[in-house]
């Protein structure tokens, strides 16, 4: 791997500055504003005392996620849509699966946690930011249930975090990068999202060759890079966990 | 008028603390986070180089507004709607009319300003906050056009601000209040929104008897109270205006 | 105020000829065809033995209104819409609020009155005509319930009527007018709808500066003019009330 | 065929009283209120200076129809629908085909006639009434084009009329009836709509066994009865035709 | 009637080769692939243990049909529609009525049979093919209920079949044809669908003059031709009936 | 890895019998019925002489895919949906990306290939079958363009194929399997779809922990198994390629 300076001065394996602002809004059981660089997402976790129809009477809970962008989260304004588009569908299903994987749903009772991820500024990596922030919002919502004695055992069994990795071409060399911003993402040859838990076990992996196929070797290099970065994010998430 | 202390300790004629955070998001030509107490609205003004069909070739611009709430802006989560509901329609039409009234549209050229008002926390008075913040976002978007020499003359001819006034019943007396929060608003006998310019000329007035009719005399008392408050808001808006 | 002859020869304070044709259709519990000049609206009040979800078990009734235009009610044909547009939403919510204000809903039992206002010819003032005709249709529907002993006490406590007033410019003078027809309405500087009861208490007031702000003094002149006209309409509505 | 007195006293081969009120609304190029007994339909024919996409540049016109019911046209109120239901689709396609059959579309130029059939009271036979009234509305719209010299030759080549016939069971006998009202229609064994021109040539025939199959012989008896009735309706339509 | 050879070499009274492939898919209670020449329709009959709302508690069953085309069933690809179009509505209502006519619904219990007719290749006559194939799929679904002792008596009382007949113009003569393919259908002067049972009693008849009116005499000729053809189809359907 | 016999007698690394029936329907430029065991999908590739808006004037083509199931493709009938659901959105976007990856779009000219994947029987692995069959349908559509000299150079640069792999638990052991049928898929701990080209370069990889996280080691075992199977499918696809 050769020398390569990214537009914003980061090294290939460097995350953008990221942070979680907690209690961002007043009413949600868990509310977090997460940012990775210029990407900013409001993650609100709401608890409802009912479950989807297919779970009624099954004595377990559920978690679902919704993902949306404010019209002017992006450089060019997007119209509000009367129905959710394919890309958003894909993303919110991914967020939901990832967050459910860290829960023992039977400990939640017949309750549903809805994690609303509303992007107020988009500069690449919104789905990964939503998973990281959504996990923390879910954690706070669950704490709220525990403190009010609505549930007695903590259903959260794992921390999950997500990061994007990809391959870009620079002066005819292929370079692997982590945490791509919008300008990098739109030129990437390959784009991969990796979601793992605190033991670096895989929750979900989605890799797409956008302009050029990639090899098993490159897949492994991207996974190595993702693992390092996920450990840093999870370290930060751990700071919010009560003893 | 007799003595009356409001839940949050305000006097009957006292506004909640209010503020405008400017440059709230990065991409919109004008971006303001406005709050009146716990009510918080992101107002993003976007400029587009096209006008609605009915204005094509008429050599003038347009301004339109869209209003929406995040699902968990409220105490109880609201579902995302596939189509805009009647209340939101009414509100965004009001915001649009109010902001258009302060513009000389012919000085804007064939351009449209879209003001997105997204409520992230709702505690009463969201439409009035949207108009106050939306005016400032529009002002910044217009400054942006002037600075880039896209237009040469300032189309903004007036400042507009909006405030709610209402009548509540307290120990069998009817009491007039300004800037009602959610708990006051939901029990009000009468609810009125007053939109005026810096000369206290009327842009729009909408008064509704929710539970009891009101008299011409009460109408005038409410207007007097609104006028005092609007002057305070306009004073703050003026601080952002360049010399 | 100076001399001014309107297109159709009316004085500034003169209503168009108006009338209520009762029992206009056969099935509705109350059915009225109302006209103000060329504006014609079918107002059908239907009684249903159920209330909206939010009122179930609350031991009270409800009234709601729906407003629509036949495609060729207007000079140019409008397409049938798959969803209700913003203007119609606003209007039907106004009609509903106005008609509810005259009812003691607890005397209605768990019943809903739906007032359908279908405009068959539109020449300005359709929302005001709908409120006047809708009140009478509601009155007949309630009489029907009383005659059949379905309810024992009359829930109608007030008469409501509505009228438009506005300001037009004529030879550089501003002139206040009542009951604007379409040609007057589309050129008005200000447009205001005033809904009052038989004691001239205010039910709702909605005034909009369309092209020019208006003053508190003009507001009062418009209200004075509306009051005179509303008394004439209410006098006619009273003729239909049984002793 | 044995003796049989219908609920409303008609003979089996007797039409309900029917009439056409012309110039019913002010703006449509042709406007007719048609009634057959208690069935009342407003038929408005509008002329537009454009044709559907598939006809652009083909140097011919088009006619289309839309059919709808006011919510309280029926004994029980129907909700307004966000999309047109199957029954209405079927009916408006039938009305459109029937009215197109009497036109030489090439004489209309690149224009479209839209015939809106809005049922204000429904007591059986609404589609047949719509065709009869819609033909007359179309005739007036075409006269309007001729009088204004927009077209030079009359594109209307035929008169069309429609009537329902059916088979009901009465004291174990099957009885053929014409112009069924709602109570007869809902109990009919067979329901058939016959649309013919002034020479008794067939435009469309739709017969459905609702509860019992019918024979070729019964088909012929129903057609004979329809022919007599259609001649009476066409005689009335002819009264409106200018020399 | 004079000599006339059709494009595909058929005589005027000759059906296209037709066949029923049974057990076409694995899961449906009755599954048939029917073809008439190049027209191919998958007819799947599904049994559900519930009835539409209007039949709940009435101790009888129901049958309904849905009709759709694959996007590339036709020469030019059609877009998938978000709502069913008018033509498909008309067709599926016809299929449903025709198949219901052969059932004693009270013997079905509170069950619904849904017959899905999905056209995979369209070359004219898809609605008639759907009725013929749909009947057979319904028959198999009912056999399945009988074999599993879910019902004890066979609710199928009749066989129904459907065929198209029409009038085309050929060298200035009008020629009656049966089983029109797409090229014949799109040029037909008249198009008629005839649905009959095994006794040649009429279930439904729909005849439309597309370009020219037709006479009672032609109607009778078309019905004679339809009868011959329907007997051939019903003979084939009978081969699948168990003794 | 220990001994394990699958329900249908397959070994853990054994594909279900699979086949491609070509020219399945008559009108599509490329038409293939693909089956993997009981999973059956009609893949029709249609060529249109226009591209999506975002590509107009860019001198290149496009490929998009649509995925749908017949209502009774499954054991329980699914209702036809008025809008595409999230799962189908995800699948058709995956099919589209995978098939685009094998094309040089600039050699296609301003044309779009639409690949309709309609599942007529679903028993697991429908998205992978759609990609395999869709590739072949695309190949035939491109051959058709070459044979008609509409394009001069073959834009297909690679073969792509797809297969599912997963982890199931059997007697407390975790077992990796290839080509899961529905019963295996619904109990899998992990489900992964692997799409590769003929050189075993990765097009897309999507792995999801459904009930239990998985390790990097298991990821590699699944990829090894997928590679073997994809080579077998690609071998079969090659049989259809002209010399």
What do you see in this structure?
The structure is a homohexamer of 243-residue chains. By secondary structure, chain A is an alpha+beta fold. Helices cover 26% and strands 30% of the residues of chain A. A 5-stranded mixed β-sheet of chain A has the order 1-2-3-5-4. Chain A has a 4-stranded antiparallel β-sheet with strand order 7-6-8-9. In chain A, strand 1 and strand 2 form a beta hairpin. In chain A, helix 1 crosses helix 2. The mean pLDDT of chain A is 94. At the B-C interface, helix 1, strand 9 and helix 4 of B face helix 1, strand 9 and helix 4 of C. Strand 9 of chain D pairs antiparallel with strand 9 of chain E.
Write the layout of secondary structure elements.
Six copies of one chain form a homohexamer.
Chain A: E1 18-22, E2 30-36, E3 39-48, E4 62-69, H1 86-100, E5 112-121, H2 126-147, E6 160-170, E7 173-178, H3 182-185, E8 190-197, E9 202-209, H4 216-238
Parallel strand pairs in A: 4-5
Antiparallel strand pairs in A: 1-2, 2-3, 3-5, 6-7, 6-8, 8-9
Helix pairs in contact in A: 1-2
Number of helices of chain A: 4
Oligomer class: homohexamer
Strand order of the largest sheet of chain A: 1-2-3-5-4
- In sequence order, what are the helices and strands of chain A, one letter per element? EEEEHEHEEHEEH
| End-to-end separation of chain A | 42 Å
| Shape by Cα distribution of chain A | globular
Largest sheet of chain A: 5 strands, mixed
Question: Care to count the β-strands of chain A?
Answer: 9
DSSP helix fraction of chain A: 25-40%
